[in-house]
Amino acid sequence: MSAAFRKAAKARQRPHRERAQPAARTKLGLLEKKKDYRLRAHDYHKKQNALRALQKKALDKNPDEFYFKMIRAQVKDGVHVIKQPKNEVTPEQMKLMRTQDIKYVEMKRVSEAKKIERLKAELHLLDAAGSGPRRHLFFVDTEREVQEFDIATRLDTVPELVDRVYNRPTIATLQRETVKGPTDPAHLKKLAQQRKNQYDLLRQRIEREKAMFVITQKIQTRKDLLDKTHKVKVKKETTTGPAIYKFKFQRKR
């Protein structure tokens, strides 16, 4: 066969085209072409290599190995859940830090501190409610003294004044002078309730002053972090204290 004949036959030959996929089989996916076997083979070998690597990693794993996700994660209802860390800032602290300036918070803290000092001066910390059970220890030598022990006789006062933890006069003092102040039980009960309310107010103001102090520190820490100086976190932030950073020393002119 001559070269001219082969050239003419090649010119009359139609180009090869892949057959079209029937519409009824479209739901089964794309129709594979003849050259796709290489892609399938490559994907198959890639998955097999990945499985072999995972099997080898599982066989080489140390059963005593520890990492922190072991204690930070758990399975709930068949779902792997990672425990979220506790909030380091309370909603009240975040609201104040976002809406108020440090000068305003410091002003409120100083105001609370002055009110606390004023209340302490009025109450003198006498008979503080909620300060815990009081214990007055008496030492004796024999078991007989324990059986015959009388607290009024030991304190040298009358039995009616034993329950008073302050301003408890002795019998000698009562013989010289009369008891000063209210003695009516109803009046004493009313004064005790007023004193309890005052101590509750004092405790609330002390807690508020501490909260303001923590907020002031956190705002100041966030302002200090704007500095470009290299810093290292020494202690994480908590609800009761700001984060602590160690800044690199820089000598300034």
* Adjacency order of strands in the biggest sheet: 1-2
For the largest beta-sheet, the strand count, sense and barrel status come to:
2 strands, antiparallel
Order of helices and strands: HHHEEHHHHHHEE
Number of strands: 4
The level of helicity is: 40-55%
Poorly predicted sequence stretches spanning 5 or more consecutive residues: 127-132
Oligomeric state as shown: single chain
Q: Overview of this structure, please?
A:
By secondary structure, the protein is mainly α. The protein has a domain at 91-247. 49% of the residues lie in helices and 7% in strands. The protein is built from nine helices and four strands; from the N terminus they run αααββααααααββ. A two-stranded antiparallel ribbon has the order 1-2. Strands 3-4 form a two-stranded antiparallel sheet. Helix 5 packs antiparallel against helix 9 (185-224). The longest helix is centred in the last third of the chain and has 40 residues, at 185-224. The chain starts with a helix and ends in a 6-residue tail after the last strand. Residues 127-132 have low confidence and may be disordered.
